[in-house]
Amino acid sequence: MFPHHREREQPIFSARAHVFQIDPTTKRNWIPASKHAVTVSFFYDATRNVYRIISVGGTKAIINCTVTPSMTFTKTSQKFGQWADSRANTVYGLGFATEQQLHQFAEKFKEVKDAARLAREKSQDKELANTALTIAAPQFSQDLSDELQSPPVMCVNGPEDKLFRSQSADITLSSEKERIKKMLSEGSICEMNLEAELFTLQDSNSKLVAALHEANANVEQWKKQLTAYQEETERLRDQVADLEAHGGQGPSDLLKDELTQSLEELEALLKAKDEEIHILQSKKAEYHEMEHQRDEAIHRLREMEMRNSELERRIQNTEQNLSNSLEDRDRLDTEIQRAIEILDIKIFDLNDLRQSLVKLIDK
Q1: For the residues of 100-158, what is the DSSP string, one character each?
Q2: How far apart are CA 52 and CA 65, in angstroms?
Q3: What Rg do the C-alpha atoms of the chain give, in angstroms?
Q4: Interval 2-45: pLDDT, tens
Q5: What is the maximal distance between C-alpha atoms in the chain?
Q6: Which of 139, 294, 337, 344 is the Cys-Cys partner for 201 at CB 3.0 to 4.6 Å?
Q7: Which of 170, 184, 266, 285 lies closest to 227, judged by CA?
């Protein structure tokens, strides 16, 4: 009925870009689909052998496109490319920060398109083989399938109620099975959105971690430079004070002005370094916030996996109950057939007895 284990879609490539969609009215102007650059990812569904391009902005999907062999990614400039999605009746455009990122995305698009073409060819070959097997199958199998799908209702008072209850239970189980299948499909969509969100958070987290490591490596060096600047500032201040105290006995006023200018430049440099340290500290706070969001996304993803496992377990139980009901129905059909055969024998005996009585009366 349903597979006992369902593989999820896996991200195979990701890039940051500004997303645009063609204006449906003019078919010429581009409409921004996101205010900032977002993550655009290629996903692969191993179960259905399908490739998709997905981009999530906030709580909605900006791009949800299934890659087909007929699609073509076109570079229209050094940092911009586009492709058409006939199913969504739109054209998507991506603006990248560098030409190298555009080239990498175009190469990955071509690889995915070729893989989708091979998957379609394999699927078509499989359908042709199934069609040939269906044509070569004996007519007896079709008749037997029809009998199993639409069993005749026997007018025998005892087993008729049992047969009716069996068919009602079969309908109830089928309805329950369809409802669980729908719930499982909704859970898969939520899980896919959570995976895309988690993938985006991991990408941002890796960049923040790299920036934080680089900042931590430079902090010690900056501290040493600040200490050296402070010592130089104190030394220059002492020289200026000494010059002011001795008056004309020291260097000229020109040297004094140069020392004062150097002191001001050092103070400005110290102020700039303090601002850089403040910016790094704020980035560190953002990094902790991103870690918190990532943990929440992982927690929600685990809850969704537990829910899907529960749904799969319920589907297995439903399939088992349905199988048991089918076995009971087959057993009931056998009993009904046996009762009909016994009744036929009794009717034949009664008919024979009737003919004997008629002959006896005639004599």
Answers
A1: HHHHHHHHHHHHHHHHHHHHHHHHHHHHHHHHHHHHHS-HHHHHHHHHHHSPPPP--HH
A2: 5
A3: 39
A4: 343 344 678 899 999 999 999 988 888 899 988 889 999 999 98
A5: 171
A6: 294
A7: 266
Q: Which amino acid is at 182?
A: K
What per-residue string of b and e applies to 181-211 under the rule 16 or more CB within 10 Å gives b? eebbeebbeebbbbbbbbbbbbbbbeebeee
Calculate the alpha carbon distances from 33 to 69, 85, 326 in Å.
Answer: 25, 15, 52
Token pair listed for 11:
């991200």
Whether residue 170 is predicted with pLDDT greater than 90 in this model: the reply is no
Q: Which of 82, 81, 46, 86 is nearest to 65 (CA)?
A: 86
**What six digits make up the tokens of 254?**
């020109």
For a pLDDT cut of 90, what percent of the chain falls above it? 22
Residues 6 or more apart whose CB falls under 8 angstroms from that of 84 comprise 71, 72, 90, 91, 92
Q: Can you name the residues that pair with 32 across neighbouring β-strands?
A: 20
Look up residue 171 and give its DSSP letter: H
| Per-residue model confidence as pLDDT tens digits over 45-104 | 888 889 999 998 877 889 999 999 999 999 999 999 999 998 888 999 999 999 999 999
Adjacent-strand bridge partners of 22: 30
CA–CA–CA angle 301, 303, 308 (5° rounding) = 95
Cα angle 190, 42, 15 (rounded to 5 degrees) comes to 110
**Tokens encoding 281:** 């500290």
Q: Which two tokens stand for residue 195?
A: 């995976």
CA 200 to chain centroid: 12
Q: For 315, left (φ over 0), alpha (ψ -120 to 50), or beta?
A: alpha
DSSP code of residue 248: G
pTM confidence score: 0.38
